[in-house]
Design brief:
3 helices; Butyryl-CoA Dehydrogenase, subunit A, domain 3; elongated; mainly alpha; binds flavin-adenine dinucleotide
Amino acid sequence: MVIKQVMYDCAQFHGGMGYMRESAIERMSRDARILPIGGGATEVMLEEVAKRSYA
Ligand SMILES: Cc1cc2nc3c(=O)[nH]c(=O)nc-3n(C[C@H](O)[C@H](O)[C@H](O)COP(=O)(O)OP(=O)(O)OC[C@H]3O[C@@H](n4cnc5c(N)ncnc54)[C@H](O)[C@@H]3O)c2cc1C
């Protein structure tokens, strides 16, 4: 997933500040991580796509 890589790179670019709870980058990195979990985990969504593709 592209956003995970983008946020990883942003945190790396900001160094220690990218890791601090007070920084926007930390919050954005954490928020990006929920995307493949919330609203149905990626694995579960892939299963749904597979089921519906052959129905
Ligand atoms: C911040 C947040 C917001 C949310 N918002 C919503 C919302 O708006 N609407 C809503 O409906 N739900 C929402 N959820 C719930 C979300 O859909 C569930 O967290 C998600 O479906 C994962 O379920 P779970 O946490 O019980 O993890 P589990 O079902 O226990 O899954 C844990 C991990 O096991 C793996 N896994 C699970 N099942 C399979 C499988 N069949 N095959 C392969 N691997 C598998 C996956 O890697 C998964 O990440 C939200 C959750 C969070 C944390």
